[in-house]
């Protein structure tokens, strides 16, 4: 008994394995065509034997056996991308899951012509990093690790990654600096077994969580946040940890750490003692640093505007002051021009004959 026909409902449909179609012998309707089968069949012709149909591999790439001498450029590009992505994941010690996800992202990027005008290794790294960003709990890799492996500028690689995520309409998860505490602790030497080292890690984790609650981690690189947290935690537990030592491990500038320390110093948590910081969890949230900076700039702008207004008013009074000074000078000149009486022109006093001697 054949399969059921979708049009007439009779069980007269038969499958033709040579063409991969299902035809109903009752009504002649073609129910299915171009079916993918697991068997391989050959046919004889004047040029020799050839495969019937088209081979489709598990990775979606067609075999070039049917097209000897005319290899598809897209297939070559995808195979090269697959090998390069697998090699990059092996160097970064990533599981198989990231290889498959990064390869699928590359295929989408290739369909959107995203690879044109861009270096292939940057696109490979962006696809792998996108897979890591969508699964942040499974790894502790940063974009800086990809740039060190590929010997590419991290800012150029980051620009390619951002454009790739926008082109694919994928929003990566926000980076949580807490995930990188354990990694940076091992690089700084605090990952060894010991009570003090464990306390430094716990304090750093607590500081990062407090920074996250105070809106300090929004839009900031996790290296700067973790670097400032380790500087504070190490000094709280009596370790000598300079900013220069942090910059060598975290690959960031010293001004970045100083800015994070200055921002944390303005929060209420920085005004607590060490015991209070370890025991008390402040429920209130502090204003974001960008909001505070905007307020300071607005206040500074208001002060400048007030100063400019006062200067404008003073400049408007200058002509009046000059006019008043000119009038005073004229009045003084008139006083000087009045004739003075001579000393010999004294008024004659009438003589009294009785007073004459």
UniProtKB/TrEMBL annotation:
One Pfam family cited in the UniProt record for this chain: TFIIB
Domain TFIIB-type: 1-32
Recorded superkingdom: Eukaryota
Residues covered by region (Disordered): 311-357
Keyword list, A-Z: Activator, Metal-binding, Nucleus, Transcription, Transcription regulation, Zinc, Zinc-finger
PROSITE patterns given in the database record: ZF_TFIIB
Homology family: Belongs to the TFIIB family.
UniProt protein name: B-related factor 1
């Amino acid at each position: 008994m054949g399969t059921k026909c979708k049009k007439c409902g009779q069980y007269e449909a038969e499958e033709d394995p040579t063409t991969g179609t299902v035809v109903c012998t009752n009504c002649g309707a073609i129910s299915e065509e171009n079916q993918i089968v697991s068997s391989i069949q050959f046919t004889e012709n004047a040029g020799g034997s050839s495969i019937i149909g088209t081979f489709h591999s598990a990775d979606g790439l067609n075999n070039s056996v049917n097209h000897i001498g005319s290899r598809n450029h897209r297939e070559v590009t995808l195979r090269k991308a697959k090998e390069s992505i697998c090699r990059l994941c092996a160097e970064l010690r990533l599981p198989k899951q990231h290889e498959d996800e990064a390869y699928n992202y590359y295929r989408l990027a290739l369909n959107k012509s995203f690879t044109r005008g861009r270096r292939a290794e940057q696109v490979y790294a962006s696809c792998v990093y996108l897979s890591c960003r969508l699964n942040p709990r499974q790894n502790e890799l940063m974009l800086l690790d990809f740039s060190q492996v590929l010997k590419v500028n991290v800012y150029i690689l980051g620009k390619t990654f951002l454009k790739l995520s926008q082109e694919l309409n994928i929003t990566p998860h926000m980076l949580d600096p807490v995930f990188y505490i354990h990694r940076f602790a091992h690089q700084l030497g605090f990952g060894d077994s010991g009570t003090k080292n464990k306390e430094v890690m716990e304090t750093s984790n607590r500081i990062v969580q407090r920074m996250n609650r105070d809106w300090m981690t929004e839009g900031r690189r996790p290296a700067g946040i973790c670097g400032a947290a380790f500087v504070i935690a190490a000094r709280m537990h009596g370790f000598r940890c300079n900013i220069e030592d942090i910059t060598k491990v975290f690959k960031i500038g010293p001004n970045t750490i100083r800015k994070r320390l200055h921002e944390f110093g303005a929060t209420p948590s920085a005004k607590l003692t060490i015991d209070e910081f370890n025991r008390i969890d402040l429920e209130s949230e502090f204003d974001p640093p960008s909001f505070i900076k905007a307020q300071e700039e607005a206040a500074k702008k208001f002060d400048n505007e007030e100063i400019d207004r006062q200067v404008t008013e003073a400049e408007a009074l200058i002509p009046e002051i000059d006019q008043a000074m000119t009038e005073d000078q004229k009045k003084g000149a008139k006083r000087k021009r009045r004739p003075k009486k001579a000393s010999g022109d004294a008024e004659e006093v009438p003589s009294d004959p009785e007073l004459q001697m």
